[in-house]
Amino acid sequence: MRSMPLPILLSFNGGYVYTLxxxxxxGLFTAHVTGNFVTLGxxxxxxxxxxxxxxxxxxxxxxxxxxTRVGSTLxxxxxxxxxxxxxLVKLVLLLVVAVLxxxxxxxxxxxxxxxxxxxxAMIAAMAIQNALHRVHLTKSPPSTLMTGTTTKILLDLAxxxxxxxxxxxxxxxxxxxxxxxxxxxxxxxxxxxxGAFVLSPVWCFAVPVFASALAFIAKVETxxxx
Length: 226
Hints:
The protein is mainly α. It has one domain: Growth Hormone, Chain: A (Up-down Bundle), CATH 1.20.1250. The chain has 8 helices and no strands. Helix 1 packs antiparallel against helix 8. The longest helix has 34 residues, at 166-199. It is globular and about 60 Å long. The two termini are 20 Å apart. The relative contact order is 0.21.
């Protein structure tokens, strides 16, 4: 497991949680919160529920990212590690989500208190993942959305086809390898969650807990601040 790069594991977890929240919590996006504006409009139009969670998604995400940054700065200023504490908080949040899911799931009412609590906890966990990735894994592709990564893959492929200078081609090949693995990991997380949700809409919440625990023994290349 130590040979598994942390960014790849985070991408898998991002895809899994992304799909999990959408399927289990009435179309809630926890990793790509701007998508909630689209689903909010659909919810209002169709009356399908989950309106409050989608309204709170962006403010919750913003607050957690802000707190994550402040906390990281305090840890770093005191000479303490930063990455592992963030991974730990994320793990605890996803563990709480899994426990609540066992007791209150499956969530047929997207407006229930349990559904709202779980949704906010999942958004908080993914906000932390977004923040730690941006700060500590800056050379790796984003782990919670693939639009920008896919665009960059196609741009680099175009550079290879157009036979750019050798140094540009070499750099593009390195980026391509990293980005393609990230997209595959993300897609694998989405596919696995879809299957897991069909098998058990409750116990499928346990998988992100295990994935987050494995992050502590994954391969990390010189994280900033640690």
